[in-house]
Design goal:
Structural class: alpha+beta
Length: about 550
């Protein structure tokens, strides 16, 4: 329809409503009369009856005006159709919309009038008791369903359910007051009770929805994480191995380190490293990854992927690589795919996934059960028995990684509750802020980080150097010679050894040191493990 036709349609259909402002006036009068009746209900019966009569008269006038508007609308529709028959559907839709608005106003007015003037106290109490009985039945059903949920769900949803039951008790209390009130006073209490009953029904719907969602999440497969198609794609310029690729982003080449995965090392001829041995399967994984990404190339030969970050925050490792999940154009999480298909374990050495921990755990368990990839007992087996069998010792690696993951999770939990107190040793910005704050207060900070090396000092003290970001000033913990015997049980000199949980909390005043940031321990309790050391299976 063009603008001329729309204007003509407004003239035929909307004008009758605007012209009949009496309808709006009578609707307002009805509301005022109802308020008058409620206010007068505590007075004498003659005053109350006068207010009731006025409200009833206003209601009747409003209904009459509504009927007149409906007639005018029908006449307007006929005129509009005669002028613009080709737009009959739009005309009828406009008419229906206007009639619906009128109906809603009249229905609300009639409902209010019926409740106020036609209903008795006994009717109201009976209706409310029926609503309460219905709510009680639903609450009982919720309690029964909640019993099959996890302990965590029973706690979280249980609180909401308890709040709902408290709201329901308030309705019972209010209903008792209505039953006890005088004949001329009970109606004053009705709006408040109706509001509380509405609150019960809203809370009930909310708890039902929350419980259904919780039960659905708990019963769903745990590896159902799916990030969806990426909003932005970046060109892949190199696939280094299974968990390292290079992309063009923000006008520069960026090296990606895929979070929560650690594929085996490809063959390069370097010296043997028992912690990260180069394996045949590592080489196979590299070749598979190259072929896989080549298969994603478009007609122009360009390979594109998306990236996502935990909590949307970009971060880099100590080697300057961007830590992320790679998302394929169809929305598949490539990191998770590596674990699902047995190309990588769930790598928790640098923390549990903040995006899809449950999905990784489920994927790894399924890959192990099906003996896929690295979980195949025959993987990396040499062709000849005389050749060495280079393979990764996952029985030793997994407990170590998980102990470190536990420590990092503990830090996340503490820092989440008190971010100004708990400091990341790899963040120069946080350490500098803590040092600056120490100039004005003696309130201690707790620095969390991984021990990189330890140094014996000439005065018998021990210095622990903590891992830090590339090019940043490092954090050091200074332990006096007098304090060292009290911390001997922590075996601090070997805290950076492979297989040892090396994350610590160091509490004290952050000060500027010769080469970075220092805390001089004042008491043995100022240094604690981030998590217990790993427990290994007996061989």
């Amino acid at each position: 329809m063009n603008m001329s036709q729309i204007d003509d349609l407004n003239q035929h259909i909307n004008a009758p409503i605007l012209a009949r402002s009496a309808f709006g006036n009578h609707a307002v009068a009805l509301g005022l009369a109802i308020t008058m009746a409620l206010t007068a209900s505590c007075g004498d019966s003659e005053t109350k009856q006068t207010a009731i009569n006025a409200a009833q008269q206003a209601a009747e006038l409003a209904k009459a005006e509504g009927a007149a508007i409906a007639d005018s609308l029908e006449a307007g529709v006929k005129a509009a159709k005669a002028a613009h028959g080709e737009n009959a559907a739009e005309i009828e839709a406009a008419r229906d919309s206007a009639m619906e608005s009128i109906g809603e106003v009249l229905d609300a007015a009639s409902s209010a009038a019926e409740k106020l003037f036609a209903g008795t106290r006994a009717d109201f109490v009976s209706e409310t008791e029926s609503q309460l009985a219905n709510a009680d039945a639903k609450i009982a059903a919720l309690r029964e369903s909640l019993a099959s949920a996890s302990d965590e769900a029973q706690i979280t949803v249980g609180f909401s359910l308890a709040a709902l039951e408290a709201k329901r008790s308030l309705v019972t209390t209010k209903l008792a007051k209505i039953s006890e009130a005088g004949e001329d006073a009970w109606q004053v209490l009705v709006p408040s009770l109706e509001q509380k009953m509405a609150g019960v029904e809203q809370a009930l719907a909310s708890v039902q929805e929350r419980l259904e969602q919780t039960l659905e999440e708990e019963s769903a497969p745990k590896n159902d994480w799916f990030p969806g198609k990426p909003k932005e794609l970046f060109d892949v310029v190199k696939v280094v191995d299974g968990d390292t690729i290079h992309i063009m982003r923000n006008g520069e080449k960026q090296k990606l380190r895929l979070l929560s995965v650690d594929t085996e090392e490809k063959l390069s001829g370097r010296a043997f490293d028992p912690a990260k041995p180069e394996t045949l399967f590592g080489e196979e994984t590299k070749l598979w990854a190259i072929d896989f990404f080549n298969g994603l190339a478009g007609e122009d030969g360009v390979i594109q992927v998306g990236v996502i970050f935990p909590a949307g925050e970009e971060a880099f490792d100590v080697y300057g690589r961007l830590l992320c999940h790679v998302v394929l154009p169809d929305g598949t999480d490539f990191n998770l795919k590596l674990v699902e298909e047995g190309w990588s374990p769930y790598f928790t050495k640098y923390g549990y996934s903040r995006i899809c921990d449950k999905a990784f755990l489920a994927a790894e368990a399924e890959a192990q059960e099906n003996q896929l990839g690295i979980w195949n007992p025959e993987v990396n087996k040499p062709a000849s028995e005389s050749e060495p069998w280079n393979k990764r010792d996952y029985d030793a690696a997994l407990p170590w990684w998980r102990a470190r993951g536990d420590a990092i999770q503990e830090f996340r939990n503490r820092a989440g509750g008190s971010p100004e107190t708990f400091i990341d040793a790899e963040s120069e910005e946080q350490l500098a802020a803590a040092m600056e704050a120490g100039k004005f207060t003696d309130y201690p900070k707790s620095v969390f980080g991984a021990v990189d090396r330890s140094f014996e000092e000439d005065d018998g003290s021990l210095t622990l150097l903590f891992r830090t970001g590339q090019g940043q000033r490092a954090f050091r913990a200074k332990i006096s010679a007098e304090l060292r015997p009290k911390l001997a049980h922590l075996n601090l000199k070997d805290r950076n050894a492979i297989g040892v949980q090396n994350y610590l909390f160091v509490t004290g005043k952050v000060v500027e040191g010769p080469r970075g940031f220092d805390i001089h321990l004042g008491h043995e309790t100022a240094l604690t493990l981030g998590a217990p050391d790993p427990v290994y299976k007996e061989q």
